[in-house]
Design brief:
Blueprint: H1 15-18, E1 26-32, E2 35-41, H2 43-55, H3 60-70
Antiparallel strand pairs: 1-2
Length: 72
């Protein structure tokens, strides 16, 4: 399958390729050995985590502090 890169760095993914993965509006973009790799990301799940953290009263600073503690 071919996809053309436009002058605005946009690519339309072929329907045949997209239909073979879970439906996603967002993709994680990585470069692996000179290849661009797109991995579908479910933003709703991330938002569910954010909502739960808010319900529990856990702030971004709490998470940053926990990560800093774990990296010691």
């Amino acid at each position: 399958m071919l996809a053309k890169l436009t002058s605005k760095n946009q690519i339309t993914l072929p329907k045949a390729a997209v239909s073979q993965v879970d439906m996603a509006d967002y993709f994680e973009v990585t470069v692996d050995d000179g290849r661009i790799v797109l991995t579908p990301v479910r933003v709703q799940q991330a938002q569910a985590v954010r909502d739960k953290l808010q319900q529990l009263g856990i702030t971004e600073q709490d998470v940053a502090d926990a990560v800093a503690w774990a990296r010691r």
